[in-house]
Amino acid sequence: MVFELPNPEWLNRQYGICWDGQYCDMSGNFARVARIESKDDGKSLVLRISDPGRISKERLKRVHLYQTHVNTQGVRTVLPLKTLEGDTVSTTVQGMTMEVFPFIKGRSPQRGNSTDIRRVGCELGRLHSAGTDFSQLYDEESLFQNHLAVNQLMEEVREKRESTKDKIFHEQFIEYVEETERWIEAIESRRSGLVETGLHMDTGPQNMIIDSEDELWFIDCAHMVRGRRVFEICVTLYYLDPSSGKQLGEPARYQLAVESVEAAFLDGYTDNCEPPWSDQESVALGIERMLMFIHGVTYWTERWDEDTVLKEYGRWKEYHTAMRAELNHIV
Predict the structure, then answer these.
(1) Which residues contact 278 (CB under 8 A, 6 or more apart)?
(2) Are 130 and 200 in contact (CB under 8 A)?
(3) Would you write out the chain's pLDDT as a tens digit for each of its 331 residues?
(4) Which long-range contacts (CB under 8 A, 24 or more apart) does 271-278 make?
(5) Rounded CA separation 65/134 (Å)
(6) CA 183, CA 203: separation in Å to the nearest integer?
């Protein structure tokens, strides 16, 4: 699908922004993203164009309300500019959804850097604390497939158990997912002790900016939902670990998480989260890691050719064994 940028006249009519048509492409996986300069004040802006069939305007509007809610409590998310009619989203001539944001200049947190990791923990703790009383976000099962949405994950595993029967990696796949029901039951049985709140849902370093005043901003918030905060902690710890930045086949990609990363993150998070972090959530964190692993296993069945999947599965075996041994002591 082609995501065309609007012409300058349309942008001026919709937003009152004067633009000369020049841009810097910043596109991601699921949207057309471009940086432009406003001729009126010279400020940098970001245009984000997305498919309304993937993320509806209604969903985005709820996200924007949540961003406004947490921003009033001191959490920095980049709020969309409003059209001249007061809307936070608009529809392009081609029928795509567009949002316009201020551009935040700065750097992303560095994987493995304890200072940056603790800072992320602090701000994510504040984000989650600010969202506990906000109920207007879509819930976790509205996701297409992710380990937060355990019903969707179970459905995906069942489908892949059948569809991969003739694949050379099927036996290894079955070994990795055979206890899926056990781990889902383990997380569900602990629901009463798990805090639910508004989640960012893509807390990789690329979606956080530390600005010139040393303040951390959350960007690319389009996928926000309401769900258990321990899920987002699990995912964020993975993204902040140096192993997540390694390429396919690199030995460091298949190691257990660096303990100093978790220690630095949780030190910042637990100092800033409300309600306080619980022992039940500490146990759930290990279960979340296993569910994330299972999500990855199902996702990669169609990502590469069969030989590559089989080789990659083989490299994951030691990691899976270590996670399972740890969980068997507590679950």
Answers:
(1) 193, 195
(2) no
(3) 568 999 999 999 999 999 999 999 987 778 999 999 999 899 999 999 999 999 999 999 999 999 999 999 999 999 999 999 999 999 999 999 999 999 999 999 999 999 999 999 999 999 999 999 999 999 999 987 789 999 999 999 999 999 999 999 999 999 999 999 999 999 999 999 999 999 999 999 999 999 999 999 999 999 999 999 999 999 999 999 998 888 887 877 777 778 899 999 999 999 999 999 999 999 999 999 999 999 999 999 988 999 999 999 999 999 999 999 999 988 8
(4) 271/122, 271/125, 272/121, 272/122, 272/123, 272/125, 272/126, 272/129, 273/125, 273/126, 273/128, 273/129, 273/229, 274/129, 274/132, 275/132, 275/195, 278/193, 278/195
(5) 10
(6) 23
Evaluate whether 156 touches 177 at the Cβ level (below 8 Å): no
Burial class (CB in 10 A: 0-12, 13-18, 19+), 19: buried
Rounded distance between C-alpha atoms, residue 184 and residue 231, angstroms: 13
Distance CA 298, CA 16 (A): 46
- Cβ-count burial of 166 within 10 angstroms (0-12 exposed, 13-18 middle, 19+ buried)? exposed
Report the DSSP pairing between strands 225-228 and 216-218.
unpaired
Give all domains of the chain, ordered by start, each with its CATH number: 8-103 (3.30.200.20), 114-328 (3.90.1200.10)
Given a contact cutoff of 8 angstroms between Cβ atoms, the answer to whether 196 and 28 are in contact is no
**At 106, which helix (H) or strand (E)?**
strand 106-107
